[in-house]
Design goal:
Helices cover about 35% and strands about 25% of the residues. By secondary structure, it is of the alpha+beta class.
């Protein structure tokens, strides 16, 4: 199936979900995955045989040790755009984000991995190219400046020459994905209703870390 022709009617309401802590992705972003557990290798093989759709959602940290931990109720479904099976039997997969979803309930199957019934209605704008996704240039420059300070403060690195050239939605979504935030902070970003809201919350979170680090440094000096 061509990803550009996807609409809500041809995305299944029951999807396998790969639970991964501290990891989110968005429509039109790519999540590289290294799949080595037998249950998730089975999931990849089944998806390749069917429609290539796989959902991702973060486990709820309150019962992470459970055999079937609860998931946060919002995730993102993607299509396998590239895959390679290594000589060790693991799968290297690129999952390209399509649309976010809300978890409705778990579906019992005989598979090793978990399957859920989901709804895409709340996030249908993810598939609408006409929805306004612009962010003013000044706001983007401020975000980039703050993020550079954040990366320097926490000794992180990235290729800013590449990041600064991407369109606003990719810039904001990519930063939300790669910044080392908590699961709760990442989930808050994933659940935003618009790019403008995501940009605002991303700024708030980065400001919190910068201010907290500056305050700690000030305390140490005095």
């Amino acid at each position: 199936m061509n990803k550009n022709k996807i609409n809500l009617e041809n995305i299944p309401e029951e999807i396998p979900i790969f639970p991964l802590s501290n990891a989110i992705f968005f429509p039109n972003t790519v999540m590289p995955l290294n799949i080595f557990e037998p249950r998730y290798k089975q999931m990849i093989e089944d998806a390749l045989d069917k429609n290539k759709f796989i959902g991702m959602a973060q486990p709820n940290l309150q019962n992470l040790q459970s055999e079937k931990p609860d998931l946060f109720n919002v995730g993102c479904v993607g299509m396998i755009s590239k895959h390679n099976k290594t000589s060790q039997g693991t799968y290297l997969v690129n999952l390209e984000g399509v649309v976010r979803f809300k978890v409705i309930k778990e579906v019992e199957t005989k598979k090793m991995y978990r399957t859920f019934k989901v709804s895409y209605t709340e996030f249908s704008d993810d598939l609408d190219e006409k929805v306004k996704k612009e962010i003013d240039d000044q706001s983007l420059l401020e975000l980039i400046d703050k993020t550079k300070k954040f990366f320097k403060m926490f000794q992180l690195s990235t290729d800013w020459s590449v990041i600064e050239k991407v369109e606003p939605s990719q810039l904001i979504n990519s930063l939300a994905m790669i910044c080392p935030f908590t699961s709760g902070e990442k989930q808050r970003l994933l659940e935003t209703s618009s790019l403008q809201e995501r940009n605002s919350i991303l700024n708030q979170i980065i400001n919190f870390y910068i201010l907290g680090n500056t305050t700690d440094s000030h305390k140490k000096i005095h």
